[in-house]
Amino acid sequence: MALFWLSRTSRSRYLKPSLSYLSLIGNSEPTIFTPQSHPTVSPNPCHLNTLTQFHQWSPDFKEKFRFISVARFCISPGGVAKDEEKENCNSNRNNIKNSWIDLYLPTHVRPYAKLARLDKPIGTWLLAWPCMWSITLAAYPGHLPDLKMLTLFGCGALLLRGAGCTINDLLDRDIDTMVERTKSRPVASGVLTPFQGLCFLGFELLLGLGILLQLNNYSRILGASSLLLVFSYPLMKRFTFWPQAYLGLTFNWGALLGWAAVRGSLDHVAVVLPLYISGVFWTLVYDTIYAHQDKEDDLKVGVKSTALRFGDSTKEWITGFGIACISSLALCGFNSDIGWPYYAFLTAASGQLGWQIWTVDLSSRADCNRKFVSNKWFGVIVFSGILFGRLA
């Protein structure tokens, strides 16, 4: 009966911002009251542990109550919560939303899909774009890039990114339990055992091997050598304040591999090396912004990052990295004798990167994440410039 009443209330047009949150007052029937009439109860429904008898509710009832309470508090115009409290509420409300994994995949498959971060494709995009840049740049003037190679590298980016996340979660499972953003990951939360994660990693690497074997011999060796970076990257934050630089070396390996897959070797170092270096500096920009989300937790846990290394000087540092990234891309285009559209798109890419750096609020986790995700558009712009420059 209580569940029926609550579901009706959640759909009702009478759920106005002025409605107070729900609570249990000594019985199983939820009642509506105002904080003024019951001042002993916390007015913040994000603090569900203050509600009496909450542990006795059924899981479905708890979930519906939590959703309505958090939603009411976050939209209430009369709330007196601080900005950070509202941000936490919004974060909790977002966590309630089911991803496509929860909606469409079988229950036993979901933990593995989340382990591979299939519900968060931005990492795959960031890994794939340097590959796409390189493959398109390796195309001969006036020709479209090799569509087969673009497809193979797209699938490879998806698999390698998933494998990297799996390795990271296995090595960091003890750290992840102490960080708010990562404690719900499958291995850290105990949904998957380390052995299950290891078996899944083997499956991912096997599929990746199938893609690698379709490339030429030079590319196979070059691609296999990247595994050393992939396996060692998660350990870097324990030893250096520059794990973001190491990630740049790892994530942009495709800039070398893509060219070799098309041309058979790294025959134009003056073109390929600046492209690879530009990707490393790009990674230093976006992953430093990303690292600012966890800087408080990193301090408590004892791991390192460029966000902690730079501190209040972060914007000056990433501005320098951004300039180095654009300069390297310009040098790459000049050495490859690419057409003028490349430089027009490169100007637009500079604006997008500058917008990120100048407008990011490094004290806001939500804004850091928004700027981080926006880097997929930087990749699109650079790719478009290379494509039209080659066709020109």
List descriptors.
single chain, 392 residues, Tetracycline Repressor, domain 2, two-stranded antiparallel sheet, 20 helices, 2 strands, globular, disordered N terminus
Describe the 3D structure.
This protein is mainly alpha-helical and 392 residues long. It has a single domain (107-391), classed as Orthogonal Bundle (Tetracycline Repressor, domain 2). It is built from 20 helices and 2 strands. The protein has helices at 2-11, 59-75, 83-96, 100-104, 110-115, 122-138, 147-171, 173-176, 186-189, 194-212, 217-236, 243-251, 253-263, 269-291, 295-301, 306-310, 314-335, 341-359, 365-373, 375-391, and strands at residues 22-23, 31-32. It has a two-stranded antiparallel sheet. α2 packs antiparallel against α3. The termini are far apart. The relative contact order is 0.09. Residues 1-55, 67-82 and 91-96 have low confidence and may be disordered. Keywords: Isoprene biosynthesis, Membrane, Mitochondrion, Mitochondrion inner membrane, Transferase, Transmembrane, Transmembrane helix, Ubiquinone biosynthesis. Pathway: Cofactor biosynthesis; ubiquinone biosynthesis. It holds the Pfam family UbiA. This is 4-hydroxybenzoate polyprenyltransferase, mitochondrial. InterPro entries: HB_polyprenyltransferase-like, Prenyltransferase, UbiA_prenyltransferase, UbiA_prenylTrfase_CS, UbiA_sf.
